[in-house]
Amino acid sequence: MESLILLMSLMTLILLGAPVGFSMILLPTIYILFTNAAPLLLIPAQMFNAIDSIPLTAIPFFMLTGELMTSATITDRLVELSQRIIGRLRGSLAQANVLVSLFFAGMNGSVVADTATVGSLVIPAMTKAGYKRSFSAGITAVSSTIGGIIPPSIMMIVLANATGISVGALFSAGIIPGILVTLLLMIVNHILAVKYNFERSEEPFSWTALRKSTLRASFALIVPITLVGTVVGGIAGVVEAGAITATISLLVGLFVYRTINFSNTVSAFNRAFRNSASVFIIIAASGPFSWLLTSLGALGQLEEFLLRYANNPFIFALVLITFIYLLGMIMDSAVNIIVVGPVIVEVMVKAGYPEIQGALVCIVGFLIGSVTPPLGVAYFTAATVANATLESVAVAMIPYLVALFFLLFFLVVFPDITMWLPTYLGFVQ
Known about the structure:
- With 429 residues, the chain is an all-alpha fold.
- The protein has one domain.
- It is built from 21 helices and no strands.
- Helix 10 (154-163) packs across helix 17 (333-350) and helix 15 (298-307) packs across helix 17 (333-350).
- The longest helix is centred in the middle third of the chain and has 34 residues, at 262-295.
- It is globular and about 70 Å long.
- The model has no long low-confidence stretch (mean pLDDT 85).
């Protein structure tokens, strides 16, 4: 009962607009004050322990890379490249929306940030081309989930740190599921484009134009390729790789594209470190909150509940996915991955699944939950950016969410989807 009251209190505070980190610190503090279950000094001690990890220092570098890419208009070149790849395929702007999320994957650190960034670039163009605002918002929100699945992904770093999984192993495991999500969204886009006679580009597909756009975006593509390649290939640790790619982004903006100056560089640093601070506050706050959940037996009860269905893989998959979806709709994906993620990974390991697969299912599920109506935070963000009603955006998202639900189901039932590449690269013996 106490666990339920705690979770309901947290959800209520978040829905009322209280900062997530503040709420997660406030509740254990109140509990200790009223019950005297532990000294108050436990709160800062648990906060420090939660962030006392070297891999987490990669987060500011990742966010700085994303901000520098945006400031240097690198993302504009990725939009152009995406449109050239799509050519005159019907629904070209909707398809480009998905590809931009693929190219720009994970650097902003959250689905909400990716939704806002990509949305501000693509939604106005889609609206001008005749797309309904609700549809533009829906595909933008859903495609933003790619950023947390395709490496580099800040959420992967956070979960890897919490579970002890190799960051390189988790990065490699996310590549195939991320590509599958991209292809699935593009297939749904195509079906809807044909059905509703969406726009197509006036310019025919041209290998020459594609080659020119690829050259224009080549330095932009170097950034994610370098980061993923160095980490997965074991050339550099995740922190070193983050520092390298942030440096590359800065140099490309200054000396190659010449679209960045001192002023917007300073602004990029400010935004990156401010956003990093927000993530670190949540990570730190998860320490005392996780302690409280453990003390009340909530995490143990959750593990026991899920393991009841472990004997039947299909029922287990349905129960697990439904739980992840529901929790993902209510709470921030970062909070879910930090607090509940390790428990879900442990449950899947005890049920006979590989640890890496459990981590990927956890990440993908919570990211999808964060864009799912009626409470998904990225769903609200997309509707706001597009100036569309929440109800219309929810309806527009239904075919995508159904498709992603089935994909997540297959990720649970068929381990090879996530495990083949880590095994091939030697992360799994």
